[in-house]
Fold each of these.
Amino acid sequence: MALTKEHAAARMKGIGGSELATILHKEVAASGDTVYGCPLALYFEKTGIEADYPFPETGIIQRGIVLEPVIADLYKEEKGHTIRTLPHKVSKVNPWEMVSIDRQIVGVEPGPGILECKSVGQQVWYQIKAKGMPLRFVLQVLWGMHILGIQYTWGSVAFLWADGWEYHSFLVERDQTLIDMMAKKVAAFWHLVQAKTPPKKLKYKDPRCQTCRWRSSCQGDDLIQAAGQDLETFEEIETAVDLGPKVLQRMGI
Ligand code: SF4
């Protein structure tokens, strides 16, 4: 599913739960979790800098959308809790803080909870089985608790590996120290966005750069060199990094 103009405009107004791991990428990496996002790419998105490449219409995104209600039903079946959808929420105090949770859990002690539904591939599923829930998902649930209020003291992340049809849910308990740290880092990032001060770029060899939507403008020829170190023809390089017209133009090709 493509990112709609409305969705893109809403995302520019603040920071949502799925973006926490990008802002806290160092902490996420230190926990042993995989880091996907880059603060500079997030800054480009929030400041409206046009990307070199369109938002990818990947099967993984589509899979997540289609399976979300299925996973919510599996959770309901597992726990017997009542769940319902909740509209997008924006903090009244800090308007850049926003969240869209997958489901709200109601009618149970110790009060309302947050449910996030995750459809994962085989690799992530086995990582979860080996090491437990990755930090990036914990941060997402804690961000929801932060914005929805102090009455939210718990949440759950439900995972489904659809190919193997294996399911598991994890409990997330409120951790105010972590929430306060997250809120501070998000506020600092948002300050950069408002001041139009970009955060540092990653080293061009970072694997995140090779699939980044701003990779040509941001890393340009450095990225080509990194990708082309062991490659001999432009066809091979093009395959390796999916070079776009801007870089090819810059090279006079
Ligand atoms: S190319 Fe690399 S450093 Fe630049 S925005 Fe993308 S991920 Fe970040």
Note: Residues 38, 40-41, 201-202, 208-209, 212, 214-215, 218-219 surround iron/sulfur cluster (CB under 6 Å).
Amino acid sequence: MIPAAPLPMQPDTVPAPVPAVAAGAPRWQRLWREAVRDPRELLALLGLDAAAAGISDAAAAQFPLRVPRGFVARMRAGHLDDPLLRQVLPVDAEERIVSGFGLDAVGDGAAKKADGVIQKYRGRALLVATGSCAVHCRYCFRRHFPYAEETAARDGWREAVAAIAADPDIDEVILSGGDPLSLATPKLAELTALLADVPQLKRLRIHSRLPVVLPERVDAGLLQWLSALPWPVAFVIHANHANEFDASVDAALAALRGTGAQLLNQAVLLRGVNDSVDALAALSERSFAAGVLPYYLHQLDRVEGVAHFEVPDDEARALHAALAARLSGYLVPKLVREVQGDTGKRPL
Ligand code: SF4
């Protein structure tokens, strides 16, 4: 049972606003600005009755709705239980306080190495490149993250890059956020130009949901930047359901593959979104058809406001075993959980 109690408002943790779009800005930035931000508009677009949807204005105030219109177009009209809609609609269940769900579910604060730099595992450092995202996922484990203070870009990346350069054990940098591709390409190029002077770096990893939720972000400038990077690149997309893919996403992913990047998918196991063998198998098969290898299936990080998405561990293990019995091994992602203080993701 989940005891009902109001979710505390934390306006200081709301992610950074979308920047203004300059004249002549890339198309993806205009599409970003045109994202749906009003839950009632979203429901109206899908022909759904807002009064029956359990919308929470308090949850929307704490973590606003944001969803690109192209992603909305992949939702099924008339279905309140649509797996894509469930990922973005602020609902009453987010207001419940549940024991064991906190503000920093995975120990980001304890793993801080410098402003905007998090190191949890040997050899890898994560850069919080920005607090902005094109979509706001209700299950996000960083929905309470203090982006205003913890963004690596703040001083022209200098402190963050210096912290990485000073540690000879770090040979892989992970661009995360927020969504790093929400930064304009010249800003990304500014960062990687500085990182290129760090001799111990061997790999770059990019975690981004943008190729799926706003595939127009994969434009000529981005591809040129990626192609010119001096390291092998692992590009981790975050898709949770097969319906998130369409022809525009396939084209974006094919273009990313064309830069030589290795594409991987990391999904979160979510109640009401992908908590069935059929949904997980379809996700793996659809990812692979788009040239993306299933990598991780994450148990939910226990952050306040997301408890209604949780699938118990026993059920998660049973789903994973059934998936392994159905699919070829390379289509079966590792089922893992992040535990503060561990030396890597913990297999379930
Ligand atoms: S794109 Fe990633 S960081 Fe942004 S809201 Fe979704 S899960 Fe969180």
Note: Residues 313-326 form the longest helix (14 residues).
Amino acid sequence: MLRLTHALRDEIVRHLVAEWPNEGCGMLAGRDGTVEAVFPLRNIEIWDDLGYALYQAHPEDVLAAFQEIDDRGLEFLGTFHSHPGGGAYPSGIDVRKAMPAYPDAHYLIVGLKEHWGKGWERPGITDAEIRAFTIVDASVAEQDVLVDGVMLPKKRWWWDRPIPLIDKPSRARRRRRSTGGGRRLDTGGA
Ligand SMILES: [Zn+2]
């Protein structure tokens, strides 16, 4: 769970909107899941060879943020970044880049997608879809985000699904169908 104030939420989204249409990124710090400090970081890797948006935080900014987190006696709680034109769900790259050294880290993702409907305009901060995840061993788990005590919606989009490494559920379904087995619910007759 991540707890934020409206002011910190707006600080995150303002940075990401300012970076749009590039991805923006930053770090979150606080105590016991409560964010007390937001560190916007410079993005030094904006596009990959295929033209997909990316982020890679400037190492100087990361070091400075960790220094301040130590100085203030805070914990590193996770990172945030934007998906300009995309939904707030971890991409395959996000899953591969998850930090095994920080299994409790939250990956707060801000989707800035709504501007597509308005033409090529910089999105406003109210356009932001904000969700948070933990990513451990390529397994994505959505986490609660509370802004001033109010839980943000966990929307379900069609691309919200784990990375399909192994198609276990459909194999199980096929097996159940082929044997015709499985428990029957006793409805007690009509
Ligand atoms: Zn991402």
Note: The chain has a mean pLDDT of 82.
Amino acid sequence: MDSYKKLPPEQIHILVADDDKSIRETLQEAMQHVGYRCSIASNGREALTILEREPVDVIITDIMMPHLDGIELTKIVKKKYDTDIIMMTGFVKEYTYSEIIDLGVSDFLEKPVSIKELIIRLKRVLRERAILSEQKKFEFIVNTAKELIALVAKDYTYEVVNTAYCQIQKKSKEEVIGQKIFNIWGEDIFKESLKKHFDLCFTGTEVHDEQSIPSSSREPRYFNVAYYPYSSDGKSISHAIVVSHDISERKRAEEQLRLTMDHLRNAMEAIIQTLALTVEARDPYTAGHQKRVADLAVAIAQHMHLAEDQINGIAMGGAIHDIGKIAIPAEILSKPTKLTEVEFSLIKVHTQAGYDILKDINFPWPIARMVFEHHERMDGSGYPNGIIGNNILIDSKILAVADVVEAISSHRPYRPALGIDAALEMISSKSGACYDVDVVKTCLMLFNEKKFRFT
Ligand SMILES: [Fe+2]
């Protein structure tokens, strides 16, 4: 199959220039018989007038003509127009054949011209013209592409490179083509990051990679590089076609986004710490409780292999899980004797109060829900809603265990510290009933095997 687009004959414009009326009319008739559009001129000057008016694909011209002969016509046409020329030579005394070809003539025929022969030659010229036109289009596409495109042979030699490729190297095509990759990029880059991709590509595998390229400006440039295997004979891989797409802008935007996210995360952590301090300022007896709960909850979550992002959320939730105590009268929080039933029911309000404070903040984690659920129990015996089993978030179940272990093991206004053994004994005895089995198991393992301690 031809790899070029054949024009229909009626779109092909031929111009016959000959001072012999009978010859030009005979040739015009022959051209029109094939289907081509054909103009005629009796000399070079007339031919140029037609060319100025409309494009001509091929001029078939005589040499000896009045006013402007075929040689002068050829010189002007080759300078100004994209038109092929077939020359009909009669008495070539002043010019040798090679001189005629050197003028840029595509073919020549000796007079008297055989129509059959002329049409065969003309079709060949038109075919080459179509192929060349197709090539020019491809070259235009390849050279205007922003991607860096190169064709590299199996011995790592550049055979084709586009304009973008040369621009990044600050070299001309002549300086790159024929060179080995390592001569252009340097031995180190070639050995460390290019060779393996080319070698894999030469086995017939398409390879994709991200590559940074040192640049004259301070920041390196980043490229998405694709290596496509290419076979010049259709049988075995002979080349790699390398297409590199500049992703520096995207990389910079990603980096900027990451910095912004870090900044926001730091700001959020600072806000959460401030919230934690706010509640602890009113409740000095539980100062540090929230941080210690957060530390234990994070350790449990890590050993349960929860996702890093989820663990970050648990850390935040732990740090402010008692935020709702801000709504409880300070004298109840620090009451040195056992709470009455009414007072205890007031304390219980802190989960709902905490939820109400946080529910409209758009955290990337379910922090308001963790705060709401941290006193819920597996069997529904918790508060405020008596939620059962897996309706409670795993994040909240972890906080519940960390909260109770810290509370029992620490000093409280109304009782001395009961110690970690009593705390572990309690969660152990209520594992499965009040507390999630896996969370309790992990918590026990942390204290008994990993020597976890509150700081
Ligand atoms: Fe609480």
Note: The chain has a mean pLDDT of 91.
